[in-house]
Specification:
alpha+beta, about 170 residues, two-stranded antiparallel ribbon
């Protein structure tokens, strides 16, 4: 009787310490975005406004929030420079004091006219960044589904951003 109990305890302990089998589904699950209902890769692009060049890129799985991707990339921008972001970077004021992001509307607090004018000015100054993202999307690496290995996505995206920078120079 006691031997049976010891055997059952051993089996339970083995199940606790078993490593999950790494198969394709476990790797894919990390990249599945419930919002988009497909496997996604998130990219972050830092653009210099003066010469419209891509300075830095970063990649993550599609589940991650934009601000978390920014924090994990450890990109640090000079505190004197003005940083303009979209609403996905709520909380960036704690890290970078000289940053501008549009105000969000809620059900209880709709935007005032001054807030709408401010958001319009922020959006109009971010146009250069959006143009560079559109320029990258012409290569269909970001706009369509990426059907190659995820390991090489960063390499290919950096090559395309280098081509975009080269095209601006010539």
């Amino acid at each position: 009787m006691q031997q049976k109990r010891q055997l059952s305890d051993l089996k339970k302990n083995r199940q606790k310490f078993k490593k999950p089998i790494k198969n394709r589904k476990n790797k894919q699950k990390k990249y599945y975005s419930g919002k988009k209902k497909q496997h996604t890769i998130k990219t972050q692009v830092v653009v210099n406004k003066k010469d419209r060049r891509i300075i830095c890129t970063n990649f993550s799985n599609g589940k991650r929030h934009d601000f978390r991707v920014f924090k994990e990339s450890k990109v640090r921008i000079n505190k004197d420079l003005l940083m303009q972001t979209d609403t996905g970077y709520q909380g960036i004021k704690k890290i970078h004091k000289n940053s501008v992001l549009p105000k969000k509307k809620t059900k209880k607090h709709p935007l005032t006219k001054e807030d709408k004018i401010f958001n319009h000015s922020v959006a109009s100054s971010r146009v250069t960044n959006e143009h560079m993202i559109g320029f990258i999307k012409r290569f269909n690496i970001v706009s369509n589904t990426y059907r190659n290995r995820r390991k090489r996505f960063g390499l290919r995206f950096n090559l395309i951003s280098g081509l975009c920078n080269y095209d601006l120079v010539s």
